[in-house]
UniProtKB/TrEMBL annotation, chains A, B, C:
It comes from the Bacteria. PROSITE patterns: UPF0047. InterPro entries: UPF0047_YjbQ-like, YjbQ-like_sf. Belongs to the UPF0047 family. Gene3D superfamilies: YjbQ-like. Pfam families: YjbQ. This is Secondary thiamine-phosphate synthase enzyme.
Length: 139, 139, 139
């Protein structure tokens, strides 16, 4: 009842993996699903998966709210050894979830109609992101 | 041990439902309570419930941090079909919790003295918000 | 399988307590660990614990994103009775996690290589922060 998902990213942005989670759950039963991303420069989000502009706008907003370390407004940052996207990635990882919990009933996540599960990659370079999963059986 | 709370909102702001949760739990026993909001344009918060100015100030701050799409600074947003408050609501829903976990002991949530549970409505129009609840029994 | 950690803080900043959690878990076994901070003016974070500049930069960023109530840009805040750092602390507590979940396998948290667990103190004065812990056994 523990598992690990691997999501391959190709730069900053949102990567949906709802269907991978759905597939794994259908062999597991009911309970409480917990997901935790094992990194400090990417986040887990539940967000709208109907209009792709939502993901695009989320990325656009947060890249403005937390500009790269090369931006004049961000000159106070010190953790810049890995590049201008390094520390902003940690900041975004502090502002957005590292863990998510989703009740599961009759083998299905109790998500709303438009809710999808995403890795939000904050780094510019491609990464392999590992998400620890755990299903606590109920009843 | 699964349940759904429905919270009726009348525009952007915080709506406390701690007492509804307390009432439901007292018939359930001990364990781990999980709440998950089934929407991507509202959040769940644990916040101070002593001074109502805290909720007012939270609303005032986040409406400035994420202005409506009609604001000149937000012209880059594309997901605006449902109105100027649509995409800012998704952004706030990414920044604030979609799920909460509260340990329960002797039938009571282990909240701090001033902690209350809220739906933070990010849309301008009234909505009915659904919160999935799940109590995992302990011991 | 319930516990409470007490973390003593000496002003705004990040305070790691990963080793305290590790020590407690090794006597408990496997399952799902939940941590919840019992306050509304401090947060729980999972963040990088390799380079201390990450914690310093997080503190520097959020103190700029949410300036004290004495800042001209923040004159609209009303909840200021306890001082200029009071309401900004609540705002930061809304933006960063109040609860965390970490799957535990073979008695060890499934954290990534560089992940540590922190209390992020948002108030200027020293505080004693209480973190409720709960381990749900698995299998």
């Amino acid at each position: 009842m523990q598992h690990e998902f691997t999501i391959t990213t190709s730069g900053a942005g949102l990567y949906e993996f709802t269907s991978e989670v759905t597939r794994w759950l259908c062999t597991q039963g009911d309970g409480l699903l917990t997901l935790m991303i094992r990194h400090t420069s990417a986040s887990l989000l539940i967000q709208e998966n109907a209009d792709p502009d939502v993901c695009r706008d989320l990325q656009a907003y947060f890249s403005r709210l937390v500009p790269p370390a090369s931006d004049p407004a961000m000159q106070y940052l010190r953790h810049t050894a890995e590049g201008p996207d390094d520390m902003p990635a940690h900041i975004k990882a502090a502002m957005m979830p590292v863990s998510l919990n989703i009740p599961v009933k009759d083998g299905r996540m109790r998500l709303g109609t438009w809710q999808g599960i995403y890795v939000f990659e904050h780094r510019s370079a491609p990464h392999r992101r590992h998400v620890a999963a755990c299903l606590m059986p109920l009843g």
